[in-house]
Recover the amino acids of this structure.
């Protein structure tokens, strides 16, 4: 009897595996019902994600805060109940101030390029253990967002809209391993392809053998036909390393992204870039060096005795 | 396994999925991330007998495939969860005592979660998915395993309690 039970389980297992493979085949063949299932799921999940974001947002960087806990422990112990209330209020305020700062930076960037944008809050990140890098924002097709629109933040490119529902959108971050964007070097205009690698470091490959990159070069998005998925001129990152291998046809290197993709709170989706290519106008300015204080010392003649 | 259990299993996994998508994904962990859903599933399957484990695996995988942020093709998680459920129910569970200690449960969960992630990665790569750099993949795998181990005292008992709550009188 156990053999019969075992055979039945095996048959059930194989049937379910075949069903899974059938679903995969349908998806890979681009059957629309499969993509609309995920879109429908996002519509259902969006209100929960917004609620979750409101709960988690002040605690989002919990683990980073924990590392500072030891230093403030003595102070926390000394605080009374009323101070606890103030502290929680302060955390909320800090969160709001942080988001406002990000929003201002993003709008400044969009304003410099004369992009028409819609601002959105990040309500959740993509699933972990899936080896993909995505975020979900709280604006969707009702705000005019469509698939393949560019997403920017304070210092530059964030990613591209992957799918939308009425009130939310999924954004593929530029750190996703499948992400590719055409870039040009600010100044020289040499062109290359930037690829995501999973973290905030990217790789670049120049398109032509004569294309040159140097450490410190700023990369800007090259733009796509009809400005989708990429509008031109958005800062992408700075070259941090250039590979010099003998026999290499084109230059390759590594790039540090301008945007901290782990700390995103507010982003903007570019709806329209009809003002045209901003050229190199959005290249981040190098920080001004602090003025050096020069002290002139006039030696006093020693009084002669 | 009775058909009466199926809606209960769907409800429990849908709830954990919601928790994962709305709350857990929003938390910024030190290294990698934590998949409560996957860890919860492994603990659950360790309690199940073979045929129920396979069905639970397919249901859990099917729900995981609904994740709108997922880049992988629909059905890939169903495939991975069904295979992992069968392997755990058929091989791992029979090799261990019926009354598993919390330490054993934790270790098997870490191992199961790690194996499922590797299998997802390999199957995805075969189907043409982009895989990140080796450093990124290792960090994600290590991070997920670490949090799965450290947080097991929290989700482990909860998964076992919820599993027992879904059992019908006949299943008990």
């Amino acid at each position: 009897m156990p053999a019969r039970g075992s055979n039945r389980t095996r048959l059930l297992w194989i049937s379910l595996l075949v069903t899974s493979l059938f679903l995969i085949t349908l998806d890979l063949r681009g059957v629309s019902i499969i993509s609309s299932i995920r879109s429908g799921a996002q519509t259902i999940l969006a209100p929960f994600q917004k609620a979750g974001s409101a709960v988690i947002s002040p605690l989002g960087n919990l683990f980073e805060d924990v590392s500072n806990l030891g230093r403030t422990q003595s102070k926390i112990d000394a605080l009374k109940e009323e101070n606890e209330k103030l502290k929680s209020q302060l955390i909320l305020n800090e969160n709001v101030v942080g988001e406002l700062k990000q929003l201002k930076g993003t709008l400044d960037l969009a304003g410099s390029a004369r992009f028409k944008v819609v601002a959105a809050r990040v309500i959740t990140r993509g699933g972990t253990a899936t080896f993909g890098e995505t975020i979900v924002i709280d604006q969707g097709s009702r705000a005019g967002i469509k698939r393949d629109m560019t997403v920017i933040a304070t210092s530059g490119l964030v990613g591209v809209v992957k799918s939308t529902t009425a009130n939310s959108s999924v954004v593929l971050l530029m750190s996703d391993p499948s992400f590719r964007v055409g870039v040009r070097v600010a100044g020289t205009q040499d062109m290359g392809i930037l690829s995501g690698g999973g973290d905030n470091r990217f790789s670049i490959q120049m398109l032509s053998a004569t294309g040159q990159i140097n450490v410190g070069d700023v990369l800007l998005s090259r733009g796509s036909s009809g400005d989708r998925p990429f509008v031109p001129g958005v800062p992408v990152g700075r070259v941090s390393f250039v590979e010099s291998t003998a026999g290499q046809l084109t230059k390759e290197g590594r790039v540090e992204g301008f945007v901290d993709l782990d700390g995103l709170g507010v982003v903007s989706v570019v709806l329209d870039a009809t003002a045209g290519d901003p050229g190199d106008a959005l290249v981040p300015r190098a920080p001004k060096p602090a003025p050096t204080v020069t002290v002139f010392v006039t030696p006093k003649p020693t009084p002669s005795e | 396994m009775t058909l009466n259990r199926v809606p209960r299993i769907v409800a429990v996994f849908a709830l954990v999925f919601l928790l994962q998508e709305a709350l857990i994904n929003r938390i910024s962990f030190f290294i990698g991330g934590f998949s409560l859903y996957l860890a919860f599933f492994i603990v659950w399957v360790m309690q199940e007998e073979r045929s129920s484990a396979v069905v639970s695996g397919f249901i859990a995988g099917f729900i995981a495939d609904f994740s709108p942020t997922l880049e992988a093709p629909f059905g890939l998680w169903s495939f991975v969860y069904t295979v992992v459920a069968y392997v755990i129910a058929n091989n791992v569970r029979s090799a261990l005592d019926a009354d598993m200690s919390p330490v054993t449960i934790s270790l098997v969960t870490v191992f199961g979660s790690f194996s499922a992630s590797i299998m997802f990665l390999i199957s995805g790569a075969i189907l043409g998915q982009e895989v990140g750099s080796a450093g990124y993949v290792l960090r994600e795998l290590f991070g997920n395993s670490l949090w799965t181990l450290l947080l097991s005292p929290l989700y482990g008992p909860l998964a076992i309690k919820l599993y027992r709550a879904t059992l019908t009188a006949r299943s008990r």
Notes: The longest strand of chain A covers residues 116-125.
